[in-house]
Every structure is written in C-alpha cells, then in structure tokens.
Amino acid sequence: MMKAQTAVEIHDVLANRRSPRSLDSTATLSDQDLVAILEAARWAPSANNGQPWRFYVGNRGDEVFNAILDSLASFNQGWAHRSSTLIVVAGVHSREDGTPNKGFLYDCGLAVSQMVFETHHRGYVAHQMTGFDAAKAAENLGMDSSLTPVAVISIGTQAPAEHLQGAMLEREVAPRVRKELSEIVIKGLPL
C-alpha cells in the first residue's frame, strides 16, 4: 500500500487509507471489531448533539447484506458482494419539532469519517459509496420515512488488486492523489 504524499506528516491511518475494491470474499469481521467501528461512529461530533445517523448493518450472506447489495449500482455490485459487511448510513432529516435538520448530512459524514478511521485502525478497509439507489435501499430495508439514505460503506479485508479486472483493476492500482493545499485553501494558507 502506497502512503499518501502529504505536505506535512499526518496520522499513519490517514496517510495509508485507501478505498479499495479488491476484497477477500472469505474474510469476516469479528463482532468485537464491528461493534468498535460502530462505537467510533457513535461518538462523532454532531450539531446540538442530535446524532442524526442511523446504521443498517448487514454481514455477507444475511438478509440485510443482500438488501443493501441489491440497492447498489451495478458497477459497485460487481465488487461489493465480496465485502464482509455492508452498512447503509441514513440520516434523520428533521428535528423533533418538525423543522428541517440542515446539518444532518454533515453530521452523518462526520460519523462515517470516524467509522472509516476505526476500520482502518483495526486492519480492515472501508470503501464509501454514493453509487446506490436510495429509494430502493429505503424500501428494501423497510426504512422509516423520517430517514434519508446517505451512503453505503463496504468493510472487509483487502485482497490482492489482481483479483479485479479492467477498469476496476486500473483504479485499484492507480496512485493515490489529491489536489494541492493551494488549490483547496482559499485564504489563510500558512505555507
């Protein structure tokens, strides 16, 4: 795994994190590790401590996993079936008084970020996806109308890239690149 070329040193988990598609279809996630990953997400910051995130968790072969897999875009289905666990992240889009919760997507993103960090810290890999049919996911999972599906997270054990073919293989072995800080920091860059 190639470490990111960063402007300054950052935490190794972040510098080494990737979103691979090549997964070991025989590997499983222990209950202890899964609970820790969800616990990390639970403790994410949220506006007014609203904690609008909800997680639908399926392990390979169970009903929830298959319902989530069925909602993925065909490209993502082509590799995600090898995941140990699939998680739909949904958010409560209204506050208790019925007004819109304008920050629910941001809060869900914070929870996913912590989930991904803990996943990689524990030696697994995570791949976040928005390539899924949100309405189908909601229907397949019997989701309450107060929730909006936001993303799907694949968690598993990385396998050799050569298990993939074509465009998937090319993307898997491509260098990890990001825009330079000078391109994304509008004002206040100290460098």
Overview of the structural elements:
It is globular and about 45 Å long. The protein has eight helices and four strands. With 191 residues, the chain is α+β, with helices and mostly antiparallel strands. A four-stranded antiparallel sheet has the order 1-2-4-3, sandwiched between helices. It has one domain: NADH Oxidase, CATH 3.40.109.10. The chain has helices at 12-16, 31-42, 63-71, 74-80, 104-121, 134-140, 166-173, 181-184, and strands spanning 53-59, 85-92, 125-129, 147-156.
Radius of gyration in whole Å, from Cα? 17 Å
Fourth-level CATH superfamily: NADH Oxidase
Main-sheet strand order equals 1-2-4-3
In the predicted model, the low-confidence regions spanning at least 5 consecutive residues are none
Question: How many individual helices?
Answer: 8
Shape: globular
Task: State the end-to-end distance.
Answer: 28 Å
The domain tally reads 1
CATH arch. level architecture: 3-Layer(aba) Sandwich
CATH third-level topology: NADH Oxidase
Proportion of beta-strand residues: 15-25%
CATH class term: Alpha Beta
Mean pLDDT level: 93
Note the main sheet.
4 strands, antiparallel
In percent, how helical is the residue content? Answer: 25-40%
Count every beta strand, where a strand is a DSSP E run of 2 or more residues.
4
| Series of secondary-structure elements, N-terminal to C-terminal | HHEHHEHEHEHH
Structural class: alpha+beta
